[in-house]
Structure formats: structure tokens, C-alpha cells
Records
---
Amino acid sequence: SETAAINTNIVTLTRFLTEEQTKHKEATGDFTLLCHALQFSFKAISHYIRRATLVNLTGLAGQSNATGDDQKKLDVIGNDLFIAAMRSSGKCALLVSEEEEEVIYFKDQGGARYAVACDPIDGSSNLDAGVSVGTIFGIHKLEDGSMGTKEDILKPGSELLAAGFTMYGASAQLVITMRGGTVNGFTLDNSFGEFILTHPDMRIPKARAIYSVNEGNSHYWEDNTKEYFSALKLPQGSGKPYSARYIGSMVADAYRTLLYGGIFAYPADKKSPKGKLRILYECAPMAMVFENAGGQAVDSKMNRMLDVVPEHIHDRSGIFLGSYDEVEKVKQFHK
Ligand code: AHM
Ligand code: MG
């Protein structure tokens, strides 16, 4: 019958978080509240990104400013939405945002025990083309007795309590994981206004012949990086060379890699010896997601990405992340 096809036992993000909370006897519910604020910011950012595209479309008809201006506006809106959500949660002691030079301290928040790092709209250079962008986030817990200082966020990714990202694509996707836990994917159902669990316990395929890198930088790559990518373009065993897929939006390239397998890289090179992507709100959260899904993530020196400790909040790193076997291959070439 028709009613049999309708799922009446839907797992929303709210339900998922509540069920997770009851598994942890020591949980106070603070983390759940923080996540509620997070998910609201994702819904709001997703909404405004879609509206802004419409504004840009009228812009094409000859009414609007330079596109760069619009992009900037959206970066600011995303950032402001995220900051407001974190402040109003009452659970966030400090926030690092890609869009803010300095750490934001929410001094009026007595009892706030979390430190959050985020890139509110990653990949924003793609916005005007309607290409997927997203929000990346990492959550640390304050040390016992800490009043909330920079040291609470200048930590290795291995100490992250939770991390994840959203991708505002054909639909809004949310991928979230907790330390030592599984990776779960949710899809925003616009009619319900809820994130619905659609991808429980995501596992990245062990290997896949797809590579994702800005090959335009290859002139600047170190020799071993050049040799690695050249090798991928030769027929593999009795099979074919790797396929190339590069969107230029980390959340989209990472999401595809998570689902299909393969390798995503933004290596350090001679032009950018420290790489491009930022440790706190790009590399470390993604590395946690990939490890918890059975993949790996390393920096350009082949250190485990989650062991890298940033000195400054906006520090960068080279990164290779993806399927377990694909990252093993990266390591072989970078010995
Ligand atoms: P952004 O934070 O300024 O948007 O830059 C980060 C983005 C990533 O999403 C993406 O992986 C990378 O920059 C693409 O860089 P490039 O254009 O150099 O290939
Ligand atoms: Mg970014």
C-alpha cells in the first residue's frame, strides 16, 4: 500500500543528538544545545546562500554591483549568522572563524565549556557559479579550570570532541562525527526544516582510482608530489589510469571523496611552503571525519594530520586525505 512506503520513524538530527546524549551518562546536555545552535546556523546559511544566488541572477540582468562584492556580503552574512548562533547558545566560550583575524571570546557566557573553530562559507570563490560551498567546524572542550583562552583551541585535531561540515548543494548535507565515533550524514528536508539521518555510519571505500587536486599548481610541487600524481595517470596494473575530479570547493571535493573513495590533496609546494588550507577549521575537522570513516589524512611531511598542532589560529598545512589505501600510496611516494 502507499502508506507502507512512508517512513514514520524518521531520525532527525535533534533525535539523533538526544539519543547520543542518553548514551553518555556524564553528559549535561550542553553539547546537545551547542549542536542545536550549530544546526540553526547551517539552516540559515543554506537559506541565504540560495537567496543570494537569486540576487546574483538579477544582477546578471544589469542591476547589481561587481560579483566580488556579493561574495563578500555572503561571507559576512555567513560569519555573522555563525557568531550569533554560537553566542546565543550560551555554551560557546570562544570562537575562531576564518573571517575573523582574532579569537572571539564570549565573556558573558558563564558555564560555557566549548571552543569552536569554523569556516562559515568555505569555497566562497565558487558561489557566483552556483557551485557547492559549505561550513566546516571543529569543537573542543575547555580544559578543566580553564577560563577559555587561545590554548583551548590551539590543540591537535586528535583532541577534537566533535567535527564535521555541511555542503550546500542540490540539498544541504551535514556530516558530523565525535571523537572515536562513527560518521553520520544528514540531509536537510526543507519542508520539515530538519536534518534527517540519511547516511548512517559512513565508511569511505578502501581504495578508488580518483584524484582531486589543483593541478594548475603542479609546476610548484615538490618532486615526490609530482612523481606521485604522474604515477596515478599511468595505467594501474591491468586497469586504467585514475580519473581527475576537482571542484575547488573543499567540502564538495571531500564529500565526494568520502562517498566514492579516492584521494583529495592540497599539498604544500614551493609557492606555498605551508600549504593553503587552514589547520583549525579546514584540515583537522576533515581529518577527523575521514579517520572515523576508515580513511586517513596526513600533512605534506606525512605526519598524521590529527597530530599537527597549530601555533597560531590561522596556521595552514599541506594535506592529503582519502581512502586508506590511497593515502598509503601517497606515503610510499613521499618517503
Ligand atoms: P576559502 O576558505 O577562501 O574559500 O579557500 C578554501 C578553498 C577550499 O574550499 C578549496 O579546497 C581550495 O580553497 C581551492 O583552492 P584553489 O582555488 O587554489 O584550488
Ligand atoms: Mg576556507
Note: The longest helix spans residues 30-63.
---
Amino acid sequence: MSASKNIKPAKITKICCIGAGYVGGPTMSVIAKMCPEITVTIVDINKEKIAQWNGDDLDNLPIFENGLKEIITERRGKNLFFSTDIDQAIKDAQMIFISVNTPTKTYGQGKGMAADLKYIELCARQIATVATSDKIVVEKSTIPVRTAQTIKQILDNTSSDFKFQILSNPEFLSEGTAIKDLMNPDRVLIGGEQSKAGEEAIEALAAIYSRWISQEKIIRTNVWSSELSKLTANAFLAQRISSINAMSALCEKTGANIEEVSLAIGMDSRIGSKFLQASVGFGGSCFQKDILNLVYISQTLGLPEVAHYWENVLIINDYQKTRFAQNIISTLFNTVSSKKITFLGWAFKKETNDTRESAAIYVAWELLQDQADIHVYDPKVTVDQISRDLKLVSKGLFNGNEGQGTITIHKEPYSATYDAHAIAILTEWDEFKTYNWQKIYDQMKKPAFLFDGRNILDRKQLDTIGFQTYQIGK
Ligand code: NAD
Ligand code: UGA
């Protein structure tokens, strides 16, 4: 679908975004920065979060992203606002982005697999109830294919006075590089209804992105292709990680080196070199939930082979996390009971404070079953967040069997590693490479075991110091 010449889109001057999270916060901040003539209001039901976004302490924003606080300093109070007055923001805006969470359902039909669309539905009902003019509603959240139809049904049946156009505009940013990704995306995808009104809505949104993104990068499709492309992109990305992680297990049995294999295959331009970093397993709020959702959709549409195919990406990911934990236990003479095991890193990747579905949580759980005394240090994750994650563990998310180990959280790495039996690297933070590893070795119990779940440390240097080092796929 390409832009028609005789379409005259409405000029957008007021935007509302429902959901002030990892997507809503950065995406809207960048729109506010690049379009100073547009007033952007981000709203949320979470009062604490909005207070943090509005707070004076810019080191205490709800999320950490490089470059974000500079944009907030520049635009907040000028054309960027954070508010809990959702009704007013909806009324004022011509265009409303929905950026609320779409987690995996934890109850009823589709439990553990389907996306829970209750927050999306609530937004649609609220928009329909309070709108006092026509609106363009933009799905920014990741949702199952054909969700736009649900939103449209709710809007059209709740409010008969005004016209609503639904666009799909999925977000492809990665946490840790959100601002960079938003400023210079590989592409922007806009799906809309194939009608004159649909095209006008698409072009109104395209005009916003055109302020800093070239036309060739703005793809226009039908709504269903756009919705499905988002799930497909995440499934393909996760699949690459599971593929390389599956190979890492084979490397460990054969003497091949996964980094050499990654390099060799990545230089094939058809394969490409990105996303071939073997690891302790992927985490993050989206890969698992989006693939589960894809599996569920495939199953319910009577496509079990497709469902089974994608399910294996998750099976390998779980295998990789378990394999890492089991290797720690078996290497430490088949038990970690009452042994100090230090985790360096808790976030699901570097440069973010997000811990959702982090591999660290799963590895911790496995070791706690074996009664380990786990000590954690992460440069950005707060003590409170780690405690919350562990409470979820002990609340029975994992069948209620949390073992009898202990967890201690540290504010710096040297106390965390003092007298430890073993260190496990769970996140690839750059600062880990700069530590005084001789000092850490000297203060550890011997033999000093080091399990590098991210392959970030210099193995030769560690071996020379005296560590017994284990890396992934080597
Ligand atoms: P998040 O949990 O960080 O933020 C969602 C926010 O929506 C929360 O602050 C919540 O309080 C708010 N909210 C929920 N229901 C609401 C309602 N009815 N009214 C007002 N506010 C409401 O989630 P996120 O990580 O920003 O993800 C949002 C969506 O974007 C998801 O669908 C996710 O799959 C998708 N996505 C996320 C990323 C990412 O990197 N996190 C990237 C691309 C796409
Ligand atoms: C991912 C996608 O990359 C984004 O395009 C997408 O918008 C987003 O999900 C989403 O929909 O939420 P994100 O989860 O923020 O972004 O981070 P990634 O960089 O993709 O990393 C995900 C996980 O895979 C991390 O745990 C990371 O450490 C791991 N990973 C990544 C590897 O183990 N190996 C790699 O080679 C790359």
C-alpha cells in the first residue's frame, strides 16, 4: 500500500497516549521532541508512576533509558505532559495512542498463552464513553492479529455520535536503546483501513513520523498485516537466539566454539551477524508473551503444526536457563546447599532496569531449590525490584516450591563476591569487564568458579588468575 496523492490528512496538534510505561514514555517523549508544535499528554492509572514522571529527580524516572532524561528536561511542561486525568486528555486529543500492557492471561480460557486484552478493552470503552469529537485511535501495544476489530466494535457500539479510525502502529524499540531506536528506526509500520477515511488517518500519523523519518522507511499496510508483522518480528528475533543457544549446547559437547560458529555463519549476508549472541537465555517482557500468543492464535485457528513450530523456540529458551543452573550445581560437586553463589546482573539485558522474565530469576529459582545462598548485585536494578521478583517466585509462580536457600542483595560488587564459592554473570553489563578480577579471585573460596552466562569476560585472563571458568558454548 502506498500513500495516495489526493489524500488530505487532518493536521494533528494534540496527542494523548494511554500508558506511561516502557513504550508510552519514550515514544511520546521523542514525538514531543521532534514535533514541538504538537501537545503530547501521557496518561496512566498508576498515580505513583505519573508522580515519578513529573518529579524533580530525573534520576528517579519510572524507567531508565539513555538520553531519556535529557528529552524530559527539554520538553516537559512545554509540549510534553504527564497526567492521571485520562478523560480530559482523551477529550482534548485528535489522536490517541494505546500503549498499555498486554500480558499473558493468568486465568480462564487461554490461561498461560493468550494475550490478556482487558486493559486494551478498558481503554477502548473509556475513549468511547468520554470522546466529544472524532478520533484516530492508534494501537501501539503489541496485540493479537485482528484486535483492531475488537476495538472498533467497542467504539462503534458504545458511541454512535463520533467516527473512529483505528490504526495499527506497532513499536519495535528495544529496551536499553529505546531513544536511539526511536530517533532512527529501521522502519515505521502503519496499518489502516483500506478506505478514504482509513488512508487519511494513516497519512495523519505518517505526517508526524515524517518530521524525522524518511518516507521510504514508513511502511503502509492493511491493519491485519501490521498487527501480525509485530508478532512475526519478535518470533523471528527470539528464534535466532534459540537457534544459536541450541547450537551452544552442541558446541559444549564437541569442542566447537559458539563465537567462532556465530562469526562464520553471520558473515553469510543471507543470515546476517546480529542477534547471534549465545546466552543464558532471552528474557524481557515481550518475546515469551508474544510467542505464546502466536502459539495460541495458531492453535485456535486450527494450525497445530505452526503452533508446535513456534513453541519450540520457548522450549529451547527454558532448556538454556535450566542447563545453565544445572551446570552450576553439578560443577560445585553436585550441591550448592549453603554455598554463596554471587549473581552479577539481574536485569534481562544491559542498559535497562527492567527485570521482567529475566533469566536471572529462573536461574535463581533453580539454585534456591538446591538451597543456595544467592547474593545479587546489579548496577541499575533496585533492591526493591529484586525483592518483588523473588516474592513472585516464592508466591508459587513456580508451583510454590521455592526451596530453602536465601537471597542477599548488595549495592556494590566486591561485598557481593566476598567469600563466594561461585560467581554467575547473568546480565552483560559493560562495567563487569572493568572489575579488578584478581581482587575478586583473592577474596573468594577456592576453587573459585565463574560461570559467564553472557560470554563477556576475557577467559584467558580469568584462567591465568586461577578461576575455573565456564562460558556458554565453549
Ligand atoms: P508497561 O507495563 O511498562 O506500561 C503499561 C502502562 O499502561 C502501565 O503503566 C499501566 O499502569 C498502564 N495502564 C494499563 N491499563 C491502563 C488503563 N486502562 N488506563 C491507563 N493506563 C493504563 O508496558 P510496556 O512495556 O510499555 O508495554 C506496553 C505494550 O507495548 C505491550 O503491549 C508490549 O508488548 C508492547 N511493547 C513493549 C516493548 C518494550 O520494550 N517494553 C517494545 C515494543 C512493544
Ligand atoms: C525486543 C525486540 O528486540 C524489539 O524489537 C521489540 O520491540 C521488543 O522486544 C518488544 O516487542 O518488546 P527487548 O526485549 O527490549 O526488545 O530486547 P532485545 O535486545 O531484543 O533482547 C531480548 C533478550 O534477548 C535479552 O534478554 C537479551 O539479552 C537476549 N539476547 C539478545 C540474546 O540472548 N542474544 C542476542 O543475540 C540478542
Note: The longest strand covers residues 14-18.
